[in-house]
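Dear H.,

Thanks for agreeing to be a second pair of eyes. The structure we're designing against is below in token form, covering all 286 positions.
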């Protein structure tokens, strides 16, 4: 019997990239179940022969139906921050009821040690996975380089990358590399539970500014600020107080070195060095 692979969040960037990577690795499209809250968003995958099913993390009935017959599932963490632990628990419950054999989950780098304000929901989900008795693979993803390239127009317009990161480094990687790692984790036939700490080569915000300047021909400079000045600058730029505090807390975890790793798990999973910062930036901004 062929293994059936499920991918939640298939309408999102990471989920979609993982489905296409599975196909690139010769998984037959009909052996892939792309699960999306809004199935119409993945009509392109249906056109390729992928099974598309509705799955809303807030509607357990859809999850039970979506996971029927799935052997291995990539649970892409929800984008609805604050709702995620309950949403992920609903997926795990449905997976258990449907007899899913393995769940690969996109967690956060250093989940069990970091002060990152995004971590507690991931820790809760990791705990729920352990309690479920389902074999699982934790992909503790570091930052996407796209978190920064996505803001490039603002950096270019102001000539500055403001941060509260000091000279700390981030082991960021391209979202596509994390998706390739997710596909590799799904295809791994080995038994047992696994934890991967995933990140690319570490770069500072000076390095980021240099890469963006080189790629675009427009000079941007990194301006490190104390956390309170950074928060005030964000509020001055129109960011609401709560979001500004949250962004400053994220930068504090970078300043503390918590989004830097010397793990080579990502390189080992994808079978090559992660795409370097300068290449990702050039491909997206040049
Ligand atoms: N490591 C990092 O730097 C980083 C950065 C950003 C996000 N993340 C995390 O990684 C995840 C994947 O990243 P991404 O770039 O693929 O994010 P994305 O493009 O925003 O995709 C998020 C996916 O979650 C789905 N989703 C949200 N709420 C849902 C619900 N109630 N039921 C079912 N699906 C739901 C979305 O479905 P719809 O299309 O229906 O909205 C979408 O498919 C994110 O969701 C977030 O948890 C990590």
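And this is the sequence the design step returned. I haven't edited it by hand at all.
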């Amino acid at each position: 019997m062929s293994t059936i692979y499920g991918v939640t969040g298939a309408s999102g960037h990471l989920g979609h990239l993982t489905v296409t990577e599975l196909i690139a690795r010769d998984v037959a499209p009909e052996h892939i179940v792309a699960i999306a809250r809004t199935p119409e968003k993945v009509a392109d995958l249906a056109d390729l022969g992928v099974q598309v099913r509705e799955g809303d993390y807030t509607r357990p009935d859809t999850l039970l139906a979506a996971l029927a017959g799935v052997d291995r599932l990539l649970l892409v963490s929800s984008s609805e921050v604050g709702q995620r632990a309950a949403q992920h628990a609903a997926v795990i419950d449905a997976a258990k009821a449907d007899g899913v054999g393995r769940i690969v989950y996109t967690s956060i780098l250093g989940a069990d040690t970091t002060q990152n304000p995004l971590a507690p929901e991931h820790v809760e989900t990791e705990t729920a996975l352990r309690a479920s008795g389902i074999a699982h693979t934790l992909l503790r993803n570091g930052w996407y380089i796209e978190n920064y390239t996505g803001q490039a127009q603002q950096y270019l317009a102001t000539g500055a990358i403001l941060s509260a990161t000091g000279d700390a480094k981030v082991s960021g990687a391209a979202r596509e590399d994390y998706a390739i790692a997710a596909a590799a984790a799904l295809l791994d036939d080995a038994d047992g539970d696994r934890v991967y700490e995933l990140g690319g080569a570490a770069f500072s915000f000076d390095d980021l500014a240099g890469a963006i300047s080189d790629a675009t021909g427009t000079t941007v400079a990194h301006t490190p600020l104390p956390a309170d000045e950074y928060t005030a600058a964000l509020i001055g730029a129109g960011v609401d107080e709560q979001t500004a505090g949250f962004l400053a807390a994220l930068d504090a975890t970078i300043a503390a070195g918590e989004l830097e790793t010397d793990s080579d798990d990502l390189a080992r999973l994808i079978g090559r060095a992660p795409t370097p910062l300068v290449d990702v930036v050039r491909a997206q901004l040049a």
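Two observations from my side: The longest strand covers residues 102-108. The mean pLDDT is 97.

Warmly,
E.
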